[in-house]
Design a protein that fits this description.
Blueprint: E1 8-9, E2 13-21, E3 25-32, E4 37-44, H1 46-49, H2 52-66, E5 76-82, E6 85-90, E7 96-97, H3 98-105, H4 110-129, E8 132-133, E9 142-144, E10 150-152, E11 159-160, H5 181-184, H6 191-207, H7 217-226, H8 238-247, H9 259-267, H10 309-313
Antiparallel strand pairs: 1-2, 2-3, 3-4, 4-6, 5-6, 7-9, 8-11, 9-10
Helix pairs in contact: 4-6, 4-9, 6-8
Amino acid sequence: MAIHAGTTLAGRYVLRSLLAVGGMGEVWRGTDAELDREIAIKVLKDGAAENETFLKRFRNEARNAAGLVHSNIAQVFDFGEHDGTPYIVMELVEGEPLSTILERERTLDEARLVTLMRHTCRGLAVAHEAGIMHRDVKPGNLLVQEGDRVKITDFGVSRGTDQTTLTATGMVMGTAQYLAPELALGKPATAASDLYALGIIAFEAVVGRRPFTAASAVDIAIAQVNEPVPPLPAGVSPDLAALIFRLLDKNPRRRPHDALELDRILAELELLEPGTGAAQPPLDTGLPASAPRRAMPPSIAPREYRPRPDVERRRPQAR
């Protein structure tokens, strides 16, 4: 089915203008004629709709995200198919992806980064509580609204604890640059896997580049498993630096236990005033006050990791 401005799906969802184009679908701004409200509509491209894996991912996103209702998650309203074209009707989020902000600004002020991370933690906590692991947390899937409120989107490769995998043996899902080592090795996703990806985002936001780069997605995934985390700039606040290294620990058990624990840690970070070396006052994010947290070790330095010989033999296939 040809999709264009003016196309009406299911007799009520009218497409108005194209917002974004991805590998397997398009996102349109539209109107729900029955409820008279603006919406976002994701449609699967014709070629992708014929691909069984893409179709399962699309349905997976609708099923998993539809049950998640939280101010930091882009809500899914409806799912269906019109003349062979699957679609998802979602909340219209007025904002821009964090990836666009990072491309434009390269680095973020620490206080702003903490605000964005705390909002993301609140949304992830709800998903994890429901047994849904996102598995593709990255700047492009974090929509930033006015006031730096974050909406998590795109649960296309997410997986519930009661769902079977969408991939064949030896395949991994997600974006290699933000892929936790355990996922690169084909192990099950946990809440700690999503927190690792958030650690990559934090590293990128204070350094201006990602910690692991290589010529191919497979090589990047191998680097996530084997390579130590590069040092951070000297100007990064010690508490924030220690937290980033903890998030990027190769061992998921040494990362924060869950997203709510990470939120509590973020709430109590002592950050440096930009350009002064002086501590900033407590951060006001507009979020509810956090409960007392367990003390964080005074120094959390990255450990030295030796390459595992079995990794080269089992080169992960990243998508």
